[in-house]
Design brief:
Blueprint (H helix, E strand, L loop, with lengths): L4 E6 L2 H18 L2 E10 L12 H27 L5 E9 L3 H9 L4 E4 L9 H13 L4 E3 L12 E5 L4 H9 L1 H6 L2 E7 L13 H9 L4 E6 L6 H11 L4 E5 L5 H7 L2 H8 L4 E4 L1
Parallel strand pairs: 1-2, 1-4, 2-3, 4-5, 6-7, 6-9, 7-8, 9-10
Antiparallel strand pairs: 5-10
């Protein structure tokens, strides 16, 4: 198993260099093809023409989105040309209201999507919409590359956030090519609150599966105490000097996480290292 088609979706000139550099680094490592999509988003029209809207306003907003897409494409082509990988690039225009539908179609037939962080100081609501469309509708795994890009020699040490959920299992399977390249991998559990369904050591079945794929892992159990799950995981990441965190995304509904918070949103906001997410 390997990644053979990588995709990065660029919506901002501020993210272009970081995204293409990170995606190209992975493309070189896996001898993969890199697809670059530059999105000009029409933020005026929310997926429909509102009653009484002036036709000139409609046309102007679309033209502005086309111009943004073309500017991004010109920038992306210049950046990709110097990376020494197989690549293709194109610009597209989408109204914000149908952005999820457009993105999910683009993500369906790729092995991994590389995106910037959706939250925090560098985040943007459009990046959040793109991430959720990839995970939920495109059903593709996502690698979030932090500001500064991927570290040299990435990946070396991985932490797998394991809670026995389907999301965590899907993320681990999607991360296999990266895990196989690591020197060290750890199946990490924050003191499980749910009842373990199998006898034996928690995480043992996952460890056996990974071992048969050539990934040597050890099992770590971290007490939760009064800390947030995300804080416990990120502390463990720092303590083990990991450069990759693998975890299932949005175990609760996105609406609940938006209102009340959750491990996915907290880690996406705070993590200083690359994250591989899947739902």
């Amino acid at each position: 198993m390997s990644y053979k088609t990588l995709l990065t979706l660029i919506r901002s000139p501020d993210d272009a260099a970081q995204q293409i550099s990170a995606a190209a680094q992975l493309a070189r490592h896996f001898d993969a093809h890199l697809e670059i999509i530059c999105i000009g988003i029409d933020e005026v029209q929310m997926g429909y023409y509102f009653a009484g809207a002036d036709s000139m306003l409609q046309e102007t907003s679309i033209d502005m989105a086309r111009e943004r897409a073309q500017d991004l494409l010109t920038q992306a082509e210049a950046l990709a040309e110097s990376e020494g990988v197989r690549w293709s690039a194109r610009g597209i225009v989408s109204q914000y209201g149908v952005l999820g539908d457009v993105v999910s179609q683009l993500a369906r037939f790729v092995d991994l999507v590389i995106l910037p962080p959706p939250y925090g100081d560098e985040g943007h609501v459009e990046t959040e919409a793109i991430l959720e469309a990839v995970l939920f509708s495109g059903t593709a795994p996502v690698l979030i590359a932090p500001k500064g890009g991927l570290p040299a020699g990435f990946p070396k040490r991985a932490v797998i956030g394991w809670d026995e959920s389907g999301e965590a299992l899907h993320a681990t399977r999607a991360a296999l090519p990266l895990l196989q390249a690591c020197e060290d991998a750890r199946v990490t559990m924050v003191t499980p609150s749910r009842r373990i369904r199998h006898s034996g050591t928690p995480g043992e079945d996952l460890s056996t599966m990974l071992d048969r794929h050539g990934v040597k892992v050890q099992i770590d159990q971290c007490p939760k105490g009064s800390d947030r799950v995300s804080d416990v995981i990120l502390t463990h990441v720092r303590d083990t000097d990991a450069d990759l965190l693998v975890m299932g995304a949005y175990g609760h509904s996105r609406f609940r996480e938006a209102l009340l918070g959750g491990a996915t949103r907290d880690i996406l906001s705070d993590a200083p290292l690359p994250l591989l997410l899947a739902h």
